[in-house]
Amino acid sequence: MNLEQRIEILEEANKRLEREVILARDIQEIQKLVGLMQHFHSGGHDERVADYFAKKVPDVRVYFPGGGYWEGLDAPVKMAHITGGGSPVGMLAMHLMTNCVIEVAGDGKTAKGVWSASGMVASRNPETHTPNAMWEWNRYGIDFIKEDGKWRFWHHHIYPLFQIGWDEKWSERFNQKANDKPEGRMPLKTDGPPGPLDVFYSPDSNLPYIPEPQPYETFDPKTMY
Asked: What is the pTM of this model?
């Protein structure tokens, strides 16, 4: 092996290592982004989450579990208003994000990820001012886009599993329907209806499978979460 061949091998190895470092950094930044989202959410500052959404694409989309979606650059703000942005008195929401699967596009411009989440929500009934509390289990499917070198939320989809009052038996809440929320939850005014996978668990059928992200080169709108 001559010197030129050795240099070529080393250059290729350096390029491969550089790609792996960038990929690891991208995945770490995406995990940090999702962690920040829940950190702000549990602290009653959902309006801060809106700052981490895409700013340069018109098709930003945010789904509420079982309740439909908002679309456009102002969609995250609408979501924050519903979920308690602005630290309302008596609001507590916490969701533990687990089982993450993240795939970054080959071109490095977008990424996809799924998570499972268990959580709790406590608030004050807006009409009676009495306390409300519930358990909430969901699944997340999120598309990310890189803008000016920073990862941002693009399509943020929360798929429902079940929601029950804190003192209810889960078995008594089987066959929930879209917008069938525990007492005290206000009806939603969204831009679009729930999707075909936005259904609550039922013992009468299998829970819809949320596709895990597959390796891909460039984003395909058909795979949007």
From this structure: 0.86
